[in-house]
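4.2 Preliminary Data

To establish feasibility before requesting continued support, the project team ran the inverse folding procedure on a target of 191 residues. The structure was first converted into the token representation described in Section 3, and no sequence information of any kind was made available to the design step. The complete token record follows.
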């Protein structure tokens, strides 16, 4: 009868000792990051953002390219959505309508679509690479693949999210300029 309590106490001591030799994990809480809410960008025509897709290696985890072919991802620092979904949301907010605006017909709209190719940190920069298309009317199109780099203020996930927000803003402004050349081609030819 005394063997069972001694066995239980001995086993408990072994488990307690085993737990005490393992270090406490550095981080156990997962943090989620998002792009900032953009300022509104006005265009002469309504804009329809078709959801962007992502072909990046990481879906939600923040990615850091350490060398040309090594990408490290962090389990505790993640994006709230995939890169394509975040960029879609960002652009829809940037080209949003005012609450009192009357909706325009689809043939009068600019259609913007694309694929996120790169959404990561490398060598102190946030890098956004996108293949995109802007269409206005039946024939007028712009198809391009671009990469935008933004210097990081540091190497923290928060600073990465801030720099990536700036790349998204630069991309939205680029889309606005190129959209204006489709809507008013005569103005673009004068430049």
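Position-by-position output of the design step:
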């Amino acid at each position: 009868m005394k063997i069972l309590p001694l066995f239980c106490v001995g086993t408990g001591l072994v488990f307690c000792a085993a737990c005490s030799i393992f270090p406490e994990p550095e981080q156990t809480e997962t943090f989620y990051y998002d792009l900032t809410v953009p300022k509104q960008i006005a265009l002469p025509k309504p804009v329809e953002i078709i959801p962007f897709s992502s072909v990046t290696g990481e879906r939600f985890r923040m990615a850091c390219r350490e060398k040309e072919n090594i990408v490290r991802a962090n389990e505790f620092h993640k994006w709230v959505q995939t890169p394509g979904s975040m960029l879609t949301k960002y652009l829809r907010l940037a080209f949003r309508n005012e609450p009192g605006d009357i909706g325009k017909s689809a043939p009068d709209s600019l259609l913007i679509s694309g694929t996120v190719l790169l959404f990561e940190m490398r060598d102190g920069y946030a890098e956004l690479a996108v293949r995109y298309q802007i269409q206005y009317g039946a024939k007028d199109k712009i198809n391009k693949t671009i990469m935008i780099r933004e210097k990081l203020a540091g190497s923290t996930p928060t600073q990465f999210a801030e720099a990536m927000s700036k790349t998204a803003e630069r991309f939205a402004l680029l889309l606005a300029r190129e959209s204006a050349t489709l809507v008013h081609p005569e103005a673009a030819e004068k430049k």
